[in-house]
Design goal:
The chain is an alpha/beta fold. Helices cover 28% and strands 22% of the residues. The chain contains four helices and seven strands, in the order ββαβαβαβαββ. The protein is elongated. The two termini are 40 Å apart.
Length: 167
Amino acid sequence: MDIIENKVANSGLITLDIEDLIEYKPIKTFDIKTVLFMELMLKEKDFREFLKANNWEEYKDTYTNIICSSDAIVPTWAYMLLVTKLNDVSAYVFLGSKEEMMHQLYLQAIEKIDTEIYQDIRVVIKGCGEKHIPNNVYLQLTQKLLPVVKSIMYGEPCSTVPVYKRV
């Protein structure tokens, strides 16, 4: 009787899924436009009253990105005041778009990777996941792994594209 051998399991490949690098949480956007006078200017007294009165619990344990969707000039201190309220409830606060925020979260996660566990290992960086991952995240991950890995491939263990092989 022929025994079916799982060559992928026996290959010594480690699959690294970028989607597993961060914990996914709900994303909430705070548009500062909603607290501007005529959506154009910030009145400090009104803004401070809003900060005191607002229920910040809706941002609890979320990734919160702050934007201003109007053409207003918002003073830096307004964002600083806003983060004093959001920082206690949000898991992460970021000034910019949702996409920029997620990109930043991935890059921070890559920075924390302990590369020693990938020393002389053949790594497959998983592609085609459920989440959109910016190309720069793949670039940064590759850069982080290059000094230590034996090889890097992209895709799935059963169908990979060779990216790097130490000679």
